[in-house]
Amino acid sequence: MAAKILVVEDDLNLLATLKYNLVKEGYDVITAVDGSGALETARREKPELIVLDVMLPGLSGFEVCRILRKETNIPILMLTAKTEEVDKIVGLEIGADDYMTKPFSMRELLARIRAMLRRSEMTKVQPQLEPEPLKIGGLEIDSARHQALLRGATLELSPKEFDLLAFLAQNKGLVFSREQLLEKVWGYDYAGETRTVDVHIRWLRQKIESEPAKPKRLVTVRGTGYKLVG
């Protein structure tokens, strides 16, 4: 059965272009043109993935993402015409899985969608295959329940923050470059936007480090990448 994708975009020409290309790729595409319609459609249709524009009439894409993330773990790819780093960070912090800045390559968009759907499908079957929860210092990562604890307290992580933390925990002490993390955690098989990795690392540190500016758990190996240590 074709994956159902909700595209939320108020630019009707771009909406038509996105729908045409996604349908051509074999996806079942539903659409909305404003924030309220996006929420209503997402709740009713339960899509496998949402492509969500930031600038929408009424509720913004950020607001829609924040509301949906409290209700569901559906992968969300945000589209923004803005280039300021703060907009990207806000989108990721509230739970978006990835973002693309307009104008973008349709080929890259389709590649990211395929990668996000692959990761989502893998997550669905993982609970049957996962080992016991991983314990590293005061951290406990339970992939079967998609839950992480720090000294017994539940961490509020976005789906992608959890995926990143779980991957690094499973490979404790090993160093991974940004490109390797994009491949292993995001599923990209091309040189994607590595800044996405840095943003997720930054937010993870805010949640697991006593002093995020001086990380002792999730450390940077200069010129190489990142690793999680015990």
Description:
- The chain is α/β, with parallel strands linked by helices and 230 residues long.
- It folds into two domains: 4-125, Rossmann fold (3-Layer(aba) Sandwich), CATH 3.40.50; 130-228, Arc Repressor Mutant, subunit A, CATH 1.10.10.10.
- It is built from eight helices and eleven strands.
- The strands form three sheets. The protein has a five-stranded parallel β-sheet with strand order 2-1-3-4-5, with helices on both faces.
- The radius of gyration is 18 Å and the shape is globular.
Mean pLDDT: 87
What separation lies between the terminal Cα atoms? 43 Å
Helix and strand string, N-terminal first? EHEHEHEHEHEEEEHHHEE
Q: Percent helix among the residues?
A: 40-55%
Assess the beta-strand content as a share of residues. Answer: 15-25%
CATH topology heading of the largest domain = Rossmann fold
Number of strands: 11
Nearest-angstrom radius of gyration?
18 Å
The figure for the number of domains is 2
Globally, the shape reads: globular
Largest sheet: 5 strands, parallel
Which blocks of ≥5 consecutive residues have pLDDT under 50? Answer: none
In what order do the strands lie side by side in the largest sheet? 2-1-3-4-5
Structural class: alpha/beta
In the CATH scheme, the class of the largest domain would be Alpha Beta
**Number of DSSP helical runs:** 8
According to CATH, the homologous superfamily of the largest domain is Response regulator
Task: Please state the second-level CATH architecture of the largest domain.
Answer: 3-Layer(aba) Sandwich
